[in-house]
Design brief:
This is Solute carrier family 10 (Sodium/bile acid cotransporter), member 7. It comes from Chitinasiproducens palmae. With 339 residues, this protein is mostly helical. The protein has one domain: Up-down Bundle (Na+/H+ antiporter like fold), CATH 1.20.1530.20. The chain is built from 16 helices and no strands. Helix 4 packs antiparallel against helix 12 (230-257), helix 7 packs antiparallel against helix 13 and helix 12 packs antiparallel against helix 13 (262-272). The longest helix is centred in the middle third of the chain and has 32 residues, at 164-195. It is globular and about 55 Å long.
Length: 339
């Protein structure tokens, strides 16, 4: 029997199911530790396989793609904060000061690493460039985010705390080392990885599912459904959708204007439209008092779920449309439009 056209794809349904399960059965205690461990292993495996798959020539071309990296950094650290300030007259009357501060704080954060790369791969984008841009965004964000947040929030709760070097070390251990190991192992397993693309796709999707479950479980345990009204949560979701939509459309228009290839446009859209929950929570604990931090990170937790859900659907659709013509598609082909 043919699949109904109105029914979402299996991956989208799995994402929705993951959110529902996390809402009713969030992982706690030792289970949460186990989920985090499995997630770290999946992410490490993902970067190892990407390292084994990518040629040195492709990686060098990605590192030197300065126009793409500059655009992503400008979108992340300039466009988003300006957008948050521009929408102040609309947001302040309907949100509490803490929630609006949370939106501004979210705007200052770096891009995600794992999900940006996984989604770029799923959508057949420029994975080497995504690795370079997302990693650079996260590392620079450790220093840029506190500075920009201090400027636009005008808060007196800035305080010294967790070490930026520790966060940088965690990034290198979890992401960079597996990728380098994969590059080293490429001479022996590169051909096997290229022949088993379904394995890489499975790891891509699996890592996203694990990140969604772990992040939403933590949000539920922190009392996301008790701390604010349903109306406020819906309003925050709508605001996050507006921010994400503006970012995706703006980056797509600029990259088209600059003549970027389809693969580079996908990379710019996914890396330039996301905000990192993994970086945001530790930074919030440094910048804000414990009493303020809880409400300030709520918009970030919701944005994290919104960006994963929306971008996962987009990546799945773009990737499926690209598979039939993957071998001979010209680099300048326009981004496929949704029906």
């Amino acid at each position: 029997m043919a699949r109904p056209k109105f029914l979402p794809d299996n991956f989208t349904l799995l994402l929705v199911a993951t959110v529902v399960i996390a809402s009713f059965l969030p992982c706690r205690g030792e289970v949460a530790v186990g989920v985090q461990w499995v997630t770290n292993v999946a992410i490490g495996l993902l970067f190892f396989l990407h390292g084994a798959k990518l040629s040195r020539e492709a990686l060098f071309a990605a590192v030197t793609h300065w126009r793409l990296h500059s655009l992503i950094l400008l979108s992340t650290f300039v466009m988003f904060p300006l957008l948050g300030l521009a929408l102040r007259p609309l947001l302040e009357p309907v949100l509490t000061p803490a929630l609006y501060a949370g939106i501004l704080f979210t705007c200052t954060l770096p891009s995600t690493v794992q999900s940006s790369i996984a989604l770029t791969s799923l959508a057949k984008g420029n994975v080497p460039a995504a690795i370079c841009s997302a990693s650079a965004s996260t590392m620079l964000g450790i220093f840029i985010t506190p500075f920009v947040a201090g400027l636009i929030l005008s808060t007196g709760n800035m305080m010294a705390g967790s070490s930026p070097l520790k966060m940088l070390g965690d990034i290198m251990m979890q992401l960079l080392l597996p990728f380098v190991a994969g590059q080293i192992a490429r001479r022996w397993i590169g051909g096997w990885v290229a022949r088993h693309r379904t394995l890489l796709r499975f790891v891509d999707q699996g890592s996203i599912i694990l990140v969604v479950y772990g992040a939403f479980s933590e949000a539920v345990i922190e009392g996301i459904w008790q701390r604010v009204s349903v109306t406020t949560i819906i309003l925050l979701i709508v605001v996050n959708l507006v921010f994400l939509g503006i970012a995706l459309v703006a980056v797509n228009l600029v990259t088209r204007k600059l003549g970027f290839s389809r693969a580079d446009r996908i990379t710019a859209m996914f890396c330039g439209s996301k905000k990192s929950l993994a970086s945001g929570v530790p930074i919030a604990r440094v910048l804000f008092s414990p009493q303020a931090a809880g409400m300030i990170v709520l918009p970030l937790m919701l944005f994290h779920q919104v960006q994963l859900m929306v971008c996962s659907v987009l990546a799945q659709r773009w990737g499926e449309r690209d598979m039939s013509q993957e071998a001979g598609e010209p680099s300048g082909e326009p981004m496929p439009h949704r029906h």
